[in-house]
């Protein structure tokens, strides 16, 4: 990453991207915002209807659970990827990427079959004596499936960050008398924080707005915010209320991204190609 | 440097211009105002249901009118209709829609239609509205898994039994949209007379559901409930005839209970401002004639909207025929006008109850 001053003459390179962004994002977004404030009471209704807040809270909890689960699974996996031979690393990478390349619909329908009543997961629980474990149609089932769907978004930024950490620092720590555990927590973990934050932000924000998995695997009784949005748009045709709800989700997301940036997750770490280690602090 | 900048800016402008051109081009498909060829865009829910509509409705009409062609799209979505009408770029000509929604937005999102040649007596109640025609009806009688209740003498007999989990333990299944009787059946089970259902007492209906809530799967769509019934996840269910016949054709061991049965009409409407209104209206009039109605009934196992239609049903088709001899109970057709007036309030109430 060069710190050279960006030449003004390279700005036109951004014109196509900015034009596209303005056309397909900024203008519709402004339109949505204007519509959401032009009808009276759309924002106060969100607070007072007794349902939006329940669903919003359930969505935040689900997204947070998915993020933590993806981190717990993704971190050791990404760590392993940095420690094996290039050939094994290639295989591990492909394993992460296969779900990435598979259609979201195919993966969700696969989860329906796995989680449904009488499906393999239930049979497994029944085998160990836990009868009547119903995951299909429950938030737990949605969380499990979403974790799998989101895993690549956690593993890839983690891998790019962990791979860039200079392992001689660990050797130095050991040489100075540190135990392996202490060397990991005091040296490796802080250096990996940029990647962790990037993965956390990616997974959390995507989970907040996720529609397909909860719509297929959840139930109307366990709606997440995207289902509520869909209901307000397609059943009630209340574009103003839907816009207001969308704005709230957007603001929550932006606040989180801003917070993560302050906590040391650099935006560049979100790009998988940015393999440079975060600056020592 | 200067030249490459010009090239880049030019490329950006070209891309933007192309985008705009692509957006604008969709609107000028053939229109009947200009005479000559007309292309009708027909939007339904896809799958075998739309295939059947192509065969029963579109192909005969296109054969009789060589200058008319059809373009099919899915899924039908009233929010899209609103977006098209609001933006003034109406691309859909015929859209599947709930008759209550067509009535609620009659004249604002959908064209007012006139069918002077159609006689109301020939049709199921509410099949022809100011802004829609019914393309077929759906009966959603309650059915049960006969493996779960094998002895006919001890099996559920009435809709009261559906809501009696003490007498009939087992999972219930219902679809959460308003067209399959989610509000009518609990009231019938609670003792409301079939002809006194409307105006619906929604609170009373939901209170009745509360009594069986933990034993009930609330399916988000008809496909999900069909799947649950097919895999034995639900033992009693309120599923539409076209899906019951699919289960029967799969040789699933299900029995239909003909107590009081709720019938809803599915409709086709014409988005406001289409250039092809005349053709669309003529087409809608053609598809409610006895012949196409009989054909769609044979293909889908649905309720024929035209009482003069003489469908040639299969054995399984006769088992789900709400207007046939198999139905020994009463039939209630959903009150389109009541739903049109109360749609938003009822939808909100039901959703809040479900997620709360």
From TrEMBL, chain A:
Annotated ranges, domain ABC transmembrane type-1: 56-258
PROSITE patterns: ABC_TM1
Localization, UniProt: Cell membrane
Segments traversing the membrane: 56-78, 90-114, 134-159, 195-218, 239-260
Record keyword Transmembrane helix present: yes
Entry annotated with the keyword Phosphoprotein: no
Membrane topology: Multi-pass membrane protein
GO CC aspect terms: plasma membrane
Keywords linked to the UniProt accession: Cell membrane, Membrane, Transmembrane, Transmembrane helix, Transport
GO biological process: transmembrane transport
Major subcellular site: membrane
Domain of life where this protein originates: Bacteria
One Pfam short name: BPD_transp_1
UniProt cross-references to Gene3D superfamilies, sorted A to Z: MetI-like
Family in the record: Belongs to the binding-protein-dependent transport system permease family. CysTW subfamily.
Name of the molecule in the record: ABC transporter permease
UniProtKB/TrEMBL annotation, chain B:
Signal peptide: 1-21
Any Gene Ontology biological process: thiamine transport
Localization terms from the record: Periplasm
Keywords attached to this entry: Periplasm, Signal, Transport
Location (main, coarse): periplasm
Recorded GO CC terms: outer membrane-bounded periplasmic space
Keyword Transferase: no
PROSITE patterns: PROKAR_LIPOPROTEIN
GO MF entry, a single one: thiamine pyrophosphate binding
Keyword Nucleus: no
Highest taxon in the source lineage: Bacteria
The protein's name in its UniProt record: ABC transporter substrate-binding protein
Organism: Nonomuraea glycinis
